Amino acid sequence: MSTTTSHAFHHAPMDACPFMPVFGPPAIMFDRGRGSELWDSDGKRYLDFLAGLAVVSLGHANDTVAEAIGDQAETLLHVSNFFANPVATEAAVKINGLLKDATGHSGQVFFTNSGAEANECALKLARKHGGRGRHTVVSALGSFHGRTLATLAATGQPAKHEPFAPMPDGFRHVAWGDLEAMRSAVDGSVAAVLIEPIQGEGGVNPATDEYLQGVRSLCDEVGALMMVDEIQTGFCRTGRWFGFEHAGVSPDVVTMAKAMGNGMPVGACWARTEVAAAFEPGDHGSTYSGTAIACSAVNAVIDTMQEIDAPSLAVERGAQLVDAVRRLPGVVGVRGRGLMLGVELADGLDARRAYADLLDSGLIVNAVNPRTIRLLPPLTVTSDEVDEAVAMIADALATQIHEAQSGAQQ
Ligand code: PLP
Fold first, then answer.
1. Which residues, other chains included, contact 196 with Cβ-Cβ below 8 Å and sequence gap of 6+?
2. CATH for 14-61+310-409, among 3.40.50.450, 3.60.21.70, 1.20.1330.10, 3.90.1150.10?
3. Which of 25, 69, 105, 210 has the smallest CB count inside 10 Å?
4. Residues 377, 342: contact at Cβ < 8 Å?
5. How far is the CA of 276 from the centre of ligand 1 (A)?
6. pLDDT tens track for 227-285
7. How far is CA 149 from the centre of its chain?
8. Position 6 confidence tier, pLDDT thresholds 50, 70, 90
9. Ligand 1 center to residue 156 CA distance, Å?
């Protein structure tokens, strides 16, 4: 078995792959990236319109982030959480600054290594804050909150629960976007509502402003926490620093990961100070919480996003992309905000086939459901790269339309 071919494991027997089979056989081996571009081991170039699933928002091999990580690696990688380090302290202050601007409240941060762990922290905080007898967390059908047992239980996708039953207790799911359904689920036993401003894995389904405002009011009525999962939407992806800002609501707890490290595995759970006060020493922890090397990337990401005005880039390039894609034959609608977009295909067209054809032509997208292509390019994507991607999508859809028409004529 070669580990250097670009299609390393695609046609190999399952046991020839060194990874557990949870992702299916990896299709391509990438060994280099720059900005929105990736190169496989055969030297073929791709445009990455998925950004490693909303992770490398500042592009691959970003110079500032690379330099920060490199310098930090030569200074201090890690100290235990018995002690502080200046890098995590700076990152926590920065994140709190962003969220103070966005919510009007000051808060505190717990750093994690992933999005699921950020939500896990939020779920434990909700239970501790709610107290005994008030531990239920309500989330939406179609949501995605992670793969640990508790975050999987919060995830509103029953098919993903089934193989791992029984799920942890204390989770309730309601129809997405339906405020009446939310109202009937949010009672005095509810510790928190956990919600994505735009469901990402669920198909790029934006919440309306009224829905998020309604959830905030319902939480206030019963004294439950409003917890927003910004793991995919956060860090400027939707054209604001956080997705909830579009609705003008002020959540109690915000979770984030993905783009905050631009590829460095790091996440965080932020909570208003009065809410965070429910935690006491020993209630939660993680060896790598606030490790200096990860936080060096967070500081570089926040500084760079502020410097380049990343929210405006998401708005401008997003508008260009939506405007071009929605005119393409075979496209019936475009959902989302900024550079988090779901392109809905016409009846009879197949998003999975489009994904495969686009990969062949050198464009990485994702078929988030059988009819929807998800686009999440780096926020630094250029106008020319957007044009190039749109041309490839046009070709891929034209091929399917042509085949469908010739099939119908036979
Ligand atoms: N929440 C949302 C909204 C996500 O999109 C994801 C990942 O896709 C997660 C949580 C889980 O994050 P991670 O894969 O880093 O654990």
1. 140, 143, 144, 145, 202, 207, 228, 229, 230, 232, 233, 243
2. 3.90.1150.10
3. 210
4. no
5. 22
6. 999 999 999 999 999 999 999 999 999 999 999 999 999 999 999 999 999 999 999 99
7. 19
8. very low
9. 13
**Where, residue-wise, is CATH 3.40.640.10 in the chain?**
76-308
Q: Is the peptide bond before 166 cis (omega within 30 degrees of 0)?
A: yes
| Alpha-carbon span 61 to 70, nearest angstrom | 12
Q: How far apart, in whole angstroms, are the C-alpha atoms of residue 236 and residue 163?
A: 35
Tell me: pLDDT of 18 over 70.
yes
Nearest protein CA to atom 10 of ligand 1, as residue = 145
- What do you get for the CA distance between the two ends of the chain, in Å? 44
User: Could you tell me where in the chain the CATH 3.90.1150.10 domains are found?
Assistant: 14-61+310-409
User: May I ask the CATH architecture of the domain 76-308?
Assistant: 3-Layer(aba) Sandwich (3.40)
Decide whether any atom of ligand 1 lies within 6 Å of the 245 Cβ.
Answer: no
Residue owning tokens 């808060």: 107
Distance CA 326, CA 313 (A): 20
Q: Say if ligand 1 is within 6 A of residue 378 CB.
A: no
Q: How confident is the model at residue 408 (pLDDT cuts 50, 70, 90)?
A: confident
